[in-house]
Amino acid sequence: MMMKINDWQVVKLGDYASFVTGKLDSNAATPNGKYPFFTCSRETFLTDTFSFDTECVLLAGNNAAGIFPIKYFEGKFDAYQRTYVIEPLDRTKLHTRFLYYVLSLQLDYMKNISTGAATKFLTKTILDNLEITIPDFNIQRRIADILSAYDDLIENNARRIRILESMAQAIYQEMFGKVDKESLPKGWEATKIANAFEILGGSTPSTQNPEYWEGGDINWYSPSDLTANKAMFIKSSSKKITQAGLKNSSAKMFPAYCVMMTSRATIGVVSINTTEACTNQGFITCIPNERVSLYQIYFWILDNFELIDNVASGATYKEIGRGEFREFDFIVPDKNTKKKFDELINPIGKQIEILLAKNTNLRQTRNLLLPRLVSGEIPVHE
After folding, report:
1. Closest Cα partner for 13 from 142, 136, 124?
2. Residue 299 backbone dihedrals phi, psi, to 5 degrees
3. Which end of the chain has less neighbouring CB within 10 Å, N or C?
4. pLDDT digits over 72-123, tens only?
């Protein structure tokens, strides 16, 4: 059945798009592969083969939490056997990138109608019968152009951020990565983290007491904030606590520009807070000082991830305690080297922070426009 809303048509997806899945196992990824490899993960991996060379929408076909990542891509790639490759049946009637935006707004609905208990599945029948609303093709293209302009700016900034992060890591490696603690330069010190800088843990105020949470304005980070953020800097937490919550728990406030590292379950994810904050108990927070630079700590953790992960232990989930973390070897440079390092790397860090803020603003604007454009609420002319 087809009905019209003004000049827009409500149609079944299966009448306008084709669905195929990839054929690779999820372990087919290779670290330095030549082609993108799309799985049911939010992350895009790499592989050495390609089975597709097209413009399409990639949609995860299963997920334990019913969260189905969706992506747009054009070019050569390969796909996991439960990842849907969705293409318009007629590219003069359905614009591929418009389809991507329309389906992006359907993800919560897809979660609700997915099948399965422990793992949620999107079947071909579900997708065939999924209703989407589409206007004239030229309007589709115009909407896609408007929204993709934001996405292109975001990706361009993300590319610049990756380059800047590589530059910063190269500076760290040049100045600290090759230093032998057995033959240190004059004025340098080989010590333990316990003697180099302060570390803090975190805590969770009682979730049974609304006074600790309702109307809270204190950033209180959980590991999921960092795993979702995936960036060097983070400005705001998804949940906030009140002054009463802070006072009546073991959570500790720390200043802006410290290094937060997840210390349980998912270990070694790091980010730098740009405002005063506190965390739950799944963190080790490192406080820089006059002797140890913020970015020396940040890149030391990245550089020593395997060491940190190997020390972690636990039956239900892996965890590294503050006591164990304090015992890691750490090198403190002389004052002149620290000053030179800061002069080189601080401007790079500031550029990264600015670009991340720009991307946050771009995403917010795009996300406000998206539902209004693809629903026809904001009129778009050909």
Report:
1. 124
2. -75, -25
3. N
4. 999 999 999 999 999 999 999 999 999 999 999 999 999 999 998 889 999 9
Looking at the predicted structure, is the pLDDT value of residue 2 above 80? no
**Residue of 107, 8, 96 whose CA lies nearest to 57:** 96
Closest CA to 328 of 213, 170, 164, 196: 196
Contact 84, 138 (CB under 8 A): no
| CA distances, 124 to each of 14, 66, 95 (Å) | 9, 16, 21
* Residue 304 CB partners (closer than 8 Å, separation 6+): 328
Mean pLDDT of 275-283: 95
Q: Is residue 130 within 8 Å of 68, Cβ to Cβ?
A: no
pTM value is: 0.86
325 CB-near residues (< 8 Å, 6+ apart): 193, 199, 263, 284, 308
The whole-angstrom separation of Cα 349 and Cα 161 is 10
Structure tokens at 104: 């992006």
